[in-house]
Design goal:
Blueprint lengths: L5 H17 L11 E2 L7 E3 L5 E8 L2 E11 L7 E4 L9 E3 L3 E4 L5 E4 L5 E3 L8 E4 L5 E4 L5 E4 L7 E2 L4 E3 L6 E7 L2 E11 L5 E5 L12 E2 L6 E6 L5 E5 L4 E3 L11 E7 L5 E7 L2 H6 L5 E6 L3 H4 L15 E4 L7 E4 L4 E3 L9 E3 L10 H7 E7 L1 E2 L4 E5 L4 H9 L6 E5 L4 E5 L6 E3 L6 E7 L4 H4 L2 H8 L1 H13 L1 H17 L7 H10 L7 E2 L2 H7 L6 E4 L3 E8 L5 E8 L4 H15 L9 E7 L2 E7 L6 H6 L6 H21 L3 E3 L8 E3 L5 E3 L6 E3 L30 H16 L16 H10 L3 H4 L4 H5 L1 H14 L10 H9 L19
Parallel strand pairs: 25-34, 36-40
Antiparallel strand pairs: 1-7, 2-3, 3-4, 4-5, 4-6, 7-8, 8-9, 10-11, 11-12, 13-22, 14-19, 15-16, 16-17, 17-18, 19-20, 20-21, 22-23, 23-24, 25-26, 27-28, 29-35, 30-34, 31-33, 32-33, 32-35, 37-38, 38-39, 39-41, 40-41, 42-45, 43-44
Helix pairs in contact: 7-8, 9-10, 9-12, 14-15, 14-20, 15-19, 16-19
Length: about 800
Amino acid sequence: MAPHHPWRFIQFFLLLLGVSSAAQAQVNITLGSSLTPHGPNSSWLSPSGDFAFGFLPMEGNTSSYLLAVWFNKILEKTVAWYAKSSQDTPVQVPSSSVLRLTADGLLSLSNPSNDEVWSPRVPGAAYASMLDTGDFRLVGADGKPMWETFDVPADTILPTQVLPVGQQDKVLRSRLIPKDYANGRFLLAVQSDGDLVFYPVAEPTTKRYDAYWSSNTVGNGSKLVFNETGRIYFTTTNGTQVNITSAGGISMGDFFHRATLDPDGVFRQYLYPKSIKARSVWRLQWTAVSSIPQNICQVILETNADSGVCGFNSYCSFDGTHIQTTICQCPEHYEFFDKDRKYKGCKPDFEPQSCDLDEAAAAAKFEMTQIDNVDWPLADYEEYSPIDMTECRRLCIIDCFCATAVFHASTNTCWKKKLPLSNGKMAADVDRTVLMKVPRSNNSESQLSSGSTEWKKDKKYRIHESSFFLGGSVLVNILLIGILLFGTYWGISITSKKKLQSLQSLGSSILPPKIFTYKELEKATSGFCEVLGSGASGTVYKGQLQYEHATSIAVKKIKKLQQETEKEFMVELQTIGQTFHKNLVRLLGFCNEGTDRLLVYEFMTNGSLNEFLFSDARPHWSLRVQVALGVARGLLYLHEECSTQIIHCDIKPQNILLDNNFMAKIADFGLAKLLRANQTQTNTGIRGTRGYVAPEWFKNIGITSKVDVYSFGVILLEIVCCRRNVELEIADEERSILIYWANDCYRCGRIDLLVEGDDEANFNVKKAERFVAVALWCLQEEPTMRPTMLKVTQMLDGAVQIPTPPDPSSFISSLP
């Protein structure tokens, strides 16, 4: 196993120091107390020391301080709240400033000239308190809060924080850039009409452009809640909860949580390891586990003067990671106005075409360079159709107003555009060719920048190259680890433990799996003596890692090293190794020595869904509902939220495991298929398990993520009914095949027959009926009629209405 890095020991040592300082934290801050930027009284701590309120030095400016609340026990003092002046600007003060809780109960910040620069203007507090939730309060004599930071959020919300409907102060406003706390270009608001809405804003004003995301709950919305389990949802007046992020249920004791409206307009939920156990297996950094919207470059397209995510004359794309970090790029012969503030856009590095040039002179001085899969969809001033690309080029060259032309080959259409260009985006599904007008040279290819040349050779490499500049060596090492893992399947040896350990020591954005020796795992499993289960490709054993805080593990040992099992080993290692979600079993490590191939997973205390559902005792209805929602959210992550779409291909009760809290976790990715960003289906041999296999496996058509949706539909019926899909020993033949019997019961309005003898389910028969309806949609024979897992989760949660599903064997119109 790879050794711990020295910096991790330093961080652990500093953690201990933080614990020590927490012992000095004040529960109540008495009247007359004060803070100064320097010295021992620069902040007030919460009782545990997790949070601090006070003066935080501005990064890169040691003479300026931000009045803020921050996470105090991590090296990166992440800001959770910061004060804003009456002009709505961040409160930054010099080193001689003083914050006082005066004798009359007023909190007041004054500068070196003793002028008040900030105050909540709420006098009469009996004391102040910094809570372990991250909320700083002024409290009255009756013990009730008179003012609190949770009531005036900045860009972040924390667990237990609520944003109610219609209160103007309770909005989130992004920063301009991560290091600049000035109001940014995006805003999240719970509107008085009951809608949760994300807006682009024309900074530095409050002018809002058209919304780019909405909960669509006008007249029905109530409040945005970040609850104590880490789940973020929006409630409606009838009590329905609409999930805003896909995370939740992750231990508060093990992780710090926050959700931030980031400078690129994406609302992301983050985790940071808190407990010693979590820090032993989790990299010490904030990791985004959920985000909304899923593709900011797609949804931000506006019909007005907004410049888009990246500013004028630039285009937006993603770096390919599951957190969808925004990348802003300039086209060839353009450069950023400010590389640190890329939202300001790009400017040409040449003199624009003069309208004094005649057509011949213009053609001699300028040329059109080609960019594929990029588009600036707004503000064209002329359109030609039908036309070919050659003529489209010529018409832009001779037009002094034309800066670029966009050509669509499928419709033979050409759009001419002036500067500035807005809302540019780059994606594999953008079916456009951009022709940029740039200065002509005798050897234009040699004059192109190396980045542009590489991009022309391979636009995907260009995206990763941009990711390199954004993420530095961190993302390079992710790439290296990925190449190394792929290398085994293609004949590149990864048996050299030293090489892999050296790569691991460099780090990655998600902690890579650990490397175990065969002897370590043999010892951990006591000689592979306790069998948890077995399948076609291998056997799973129980073990324990004594040096990892006695962590229980499940070790999957591949039976025989043949080409197909070797392929399954690498697929499982590569697939699950790049994912993180609370509803996926986590890969802790692997062994790859000689002919031995072993995968090490977290141990699931409550076994498989197969044992849970089909044992003698019927599980409680509420637990079954929790399991169904967990499986749905795990599949949603694989299909739509992971950087590379993953089709599991073998969803069945045996491959769904339950932890000590009965949280469902999808396991066994040996048959999984990965789809590239521009790929929607794959061709492969029949996979899966009888009874859960979608009909298209037996047809000569491409396989999509809808095969998992079908399998989920079968499992959902099994969860509702607590019986297997096929039970041929049942005397009543009509009941032997569950999906047919459930369809009949649904259409006859007799859901009670499906949950006969289950008092809890009968009491919740409306929800049971909803779950059956969702399952029947998932079981449609035609894949395109099945809903996506996003739609499935919304229907299960009750966030959307469910139309009556067609008979599963029919080909009626698909789900709206």
